[in-house]
Amino acid sequence: MKAQFWHQKWESNDIAFHEKEANPLLVSNIDKLSLPVGARIFLPLCGKTLDIAWLLAKGYKVVGAELSELAIEQLFEALGTTPTIQEHGTLKCYQAQNIDIFVGDFFDIDAALLGPVDAIYDRAALVALPEDMRKNYSQHLVEISAQAPQLVICFEYDQNIMSGPPFSIGEAEVRAHYDAHYRIQLADKQQYHAKIKGKVAPIEEVWLLN
Asked: Comparing 110 with 1, which gets the higher pLDDT?
């Protein structure tokens, strides 16, 4: 899956994955991370998710990573905030009060650039990546975040019906990526509210990684 795939999605507004409200599973499970107000939360592959506005309103700081600059321009427009923009090699960093978003290749972000994070919220990163990229993604995420605790939301469905993205990821794969670094527990589980691409109505699973 090439970067151009996602650029085309944003340019054509083919973003059915973009939800119209803060994710209910974030709202109902964020407290399980036991974070203090002001904690800095990393959202990899964040897009322009409304989860960011919700987290900011709750008093958290947000750092994100996103390939599409268009998505981040739209994010700050929706937030009603004019960011400052700094360049860091191949990356740009859009910054405003309590928010930093890195635009570019996720794998170009290192620990020093990311800075300290208290937790990771992965709603749409792991499930967006094809199988051959997920191992590298999870390893890099653990390294740059100093093994910060995670709240990970996955979809599980019959991959024979739909090829993804989003891809189907069950417990076995979550453990394959993260068992060496975390205690893993299923925090929540529910039927997704709609059919994705009109084909499958997956089970959503929330994994707590400590």
From this structure: 110
CA–CA gap between residue 115 and residue 100 (Å, rounded)? 10
Q: Please, are residues 42 and 119 in contact by the beta-carbon 8 Å criterion?
A: yes
What 80-84 contacts at long range (C-beta under 8 Å, 24+ apart), as own/partner pairs, is none
Using alpha carbons only, what angle is made at residue 78 by residues 165 and 202, rounded to the nearest 5 degrees? 25
pLDDT digits (tens, 9 = 90+) for 18-36: 467 899 999 999 999 999 9
The CATH class given to the 3-8+21-209 domain equals: alpha beta
153 class by beta-carbon count within 10 Å (0-12 exposed, 13-18 middle, 19+ buried): buried
pTM for the whole structure: 0.91
The 10 Å Cβ neighbour count of residue 59 is 12
> Of the candidates 148, 138, 152, which has an alpha carbon nearest to the alpha carbon of residue 117?
148
What is the per-residue DSSP string for 130-187?
A: -HHHHHHHHHHHHHHTTS--EEEEEEE--TTT---SSPB--HHHHHHHHTTT--EEEE
Alpha carbons 127 and 45: distance in angstroms, whole number: 10
Amino acid at 29: N
> Which segments of 12-108 does DSSP mark as H helices, in order?
24-29, 51-57, 69-79
Instruction: Report helix angle 69-79 to 3-11, nearest 10.
Output: 40
Residue (of 33, 67, 22, 9) closest to 148 by Cα position: 33
